[in-house]
Amino acid sequence: MILELDCGNSFIKWRVISNPEARVVAGGVVGSDEELLQVLSSSPGVELSRCRLVSVRSDEETQQLTGKLQRAFSIDSVCAESAQEMAGVRNGYDEFQRLGLDRWLAVLGAYHLSGRACLVLDLGTAVTSDFVTAEGSHLGGFICPGMPLMRNQLRTHTRRIRYGDDAAERALQKMMPGRSTVEAVERGCLLMLQGFVQTQVEQAEEWLGGAYELYLTGGDAFMVKDAFPQAKVLPDLVFVGLAIACPLS
């Protein structure tokens, strides 16, 4: 079985797939290396043979994690790396190494699945967009704050804005003008998020033409999917690209 990891700064998304069927047998999200080791050790029927991962952590932190996996499960790990060209996609950054690995893998995955022009939107702590032509040329993209960053900035820099996550969730059950601070903030941030996505879709019509696929990924993709019924929502899009960048037999 192959362990796949998407290592962010705050969380690690993981899943275990069978080999060679590539069937997902387990998965989840954890907040630390130790929690990952614990959940893998306690997962029944999971016998790991290899690991592939993408990491936005420092090299030292990534090496610490792979070392822990080696000691705990006797498995080697291969890390995804940036490339100027791969699987028919040409990296559009002037310095290709500076394109975030999670963005690069999502682009690889989307183009592999669609085989044509595509717009990839990753809605997480930050929101990113990437445009890829039918010929596989990555045009670049945009980055803006996601819902967590927007609300946290308002909470941090505005003294009178204080509310919890439960109140935030309740506030988003309707989209009428807010009649309380939490409603006004949460609904306002969501409208900004939806507006960004709408702008990207409009730009894709201009830059990619009408024949393109729209992919939504990331934890907050569900917040905008209803407004864009043409979109394909793929929470594991980065893992699709990871398998392309790090093939394991």
Task: Describe the protein's architecture and organization.
- Its cofactor is NH4(+); K(+).
- It comes from Pseudomonas solani.
- Homodimer.
- Its EC number is 2.7.1.33.
- Helix 4 (147-157) crosses helix 6 (181-207) and helix 5 (165-171) crosses helix 6 (181-207).
- The mean pLDDT is 88.
- The chain is an alpha/beta fold and 249 residues long.
- The longest helix has 27 residues, at 181-207.
- The N and C termini lie close together (11 Å).
- It has 7 helices and 12 strands.
- The chain has a 5-stranded mixed beta sheet with strand order 3-2-1-4-5, sandwiched between helices.
- A hairpin with a 6-residue loop joins strand 2 and strand 3.
- It is 37% helix and 24% strand.
In short:
Its cofactor is NH4(+); K(+). By secondary structure, the protein is α/β, with parallel strands linked by helices.
Question: What secondary-structure arrangement, pairings included, does this model have?
Answer:
Layout: E1 2-7, E2 12-17, E3 24-30, H1 33-41, E4 50-55, H2 59-73, E5 76-79, E6 85-86, E7 89-90, H3 101-114, E8 118-123, E9 126-132, E10 138-145, H4 147-157, H5 165-171, H6 181-207, E11 213-217, E12 232-233, H7 237-245
Parallel strand pairs: 1-4, 4-5, 8-11, 11-12
Antiparallel strand pairs: 1-2, 2-3, 6-7, 8-9, 9-10
Helix pairs in contact: 3-7, 4-6, 5-6
